[in-house]
UniProtKB/TrEMBL annotation:
Belongs to the type III pantothenate kinase family. It catalyses: (R)-pantothenate + ATP = (R)-4'-phosphopantothenate + ADP + H(+). InterPro entries: ATPase_NBD, Type_III_PanK. It is found in: Cytoplasm. GO terms for cellular component: cytoplasm. ATP binds at residues 6-13, 132. It is an enzyme of class 2 (transferase). This is Type III pantothenate kinase. One of its GO terms (molecular function) is pantothenate kinase activity. Transmembrane segments: none annotated.
Length: 257
């Protein structure tokens, strides 16, 4: 069985793939100082709690935080006796290498999202991921990542207002029906929610204009459903997109190396 690990700047997600489906998805916050033993204590407790009988033979890691990879490598080696595949490292092959400016280190999560989107939908895609940052990955007809957009994430924008303005409280995102807020919290929620709706629409319209062709918009990340509810922004929403991409890349490396 494969253990797929998606390590973002905010959260780290583990998922067990048995070749047909994901048996479970475990989430923890990202901390570079977490040791291999600490990962295992957390992992083993949850796997037992869910009654999963997992025989892990392979591990694949995508990490936007370089420092956490060391402890995750030790974790894979110590507890599963395997050398993990790490997306973005030269020895981890990609089905379609990115076409970007020389010296650019594309975020591994974006490479994984691209592989997943192309596997499920073919090319000419815009993949939108609402994580710590909101990213737009443009996928060409042949499946290559050819560039995109990085915008501040929704929660980051809310946090930045709270941090920088003495009178603004911490607010959770919501999808207000009205744009005119009649209290401080409603004003902030409106600014971030409707501001993001506009941001997503404008960026996707401009990408389609620059590519001059129809493109499918695939969205992932915890906040995608909230935006889709109030504004018809995406063609498809797939919660498991990044995890699916990790299985695609793992499979590709098994077949080609
Ligand atoms: N309705 C909601 N209101 C507020 N937060 C939500 C809601 N639904 C999901 N979330 C949060 O959205 C976040 C999105 O998770 P996701 O895994 O997509 O990205 P992340 O973990 O924040 O970022 P990264 O992957 O960069 O670490 C999660 O922290 C989740 O708790
Ligand atoms: C943009 C983030 C933070 C989104 O997780 C990540 O993909 C990243 O660190 N990217 C590196 C820069 C790039 O993708 O061009
Ligand atoms: K993510």
């Amino acid at each position: 069985m494969l253990l797929a690990i998606d390590c973002g700047n905010t959260n780290t997600v583990f998922s067990i793939w048995d070749g047909t489906s994901f048996l479970c998805t475990l989430r923890t916050s990202t901390h570079h100082a977490r040791t291999a033993d600490a990962y295992f204590t957390w992992y083993a407790t949850l796997v037992k709690h869910y009654g999963i009988d997992a025989d892990i033979t392979d591990v694949i890691i995508s990490s936007t935080v370089p420092r956490v990879v060391f402890n995750l490598r030790v974790f894979a080696d110590r507890f599963f006796g395997c050398r993990p595949m790490v997306v973005g490292k030269p020895e981890c092959l990609l089905p379609h290498p990115p076409r970007v400016d020389e010296g650019t280190q594309v975020g591994p999560d974006r490479l994984v999202n691209t592989a997943a989107g192309f596997d499920r939908h073919g090319g000419d895609l815009i993949v939108v991921d609402f994580g710590t940052a909101t990213t737009f990955d443009v996928v060409a007809a042949d499946g290559a990542y050819i560039g995109g957009v990085i915008a501040p994430g929704v929660n980051l924008s809310l946090e930045a207002l709270h941090m920088a303005a003495a009178a603004l409280p911490h607010v959770d995102i919501s999808n207000p029906q009205q744009v005119i807020g009649t209290n401080t919290v409603a004003c902030i929620q409106s600014g971030v929610f409707w501001g993001y709706v506009g941001l997503v629409r404008e960026i996707c319209t401009r990408i389609k204009g620059e590519r001059d062709r129809p493109m499918k918009i695939v969205a992932t990340g915890g906040l995608a459903p909230l935006f889709q509810q109030s504004a018809d922004l995406f063609d498809v929403m797939e919660e498991d997109l990044t995890m699916h991409g990790l299985t695609v890349i793992h499979e590709y490396n098994k077949e080609n190396s």
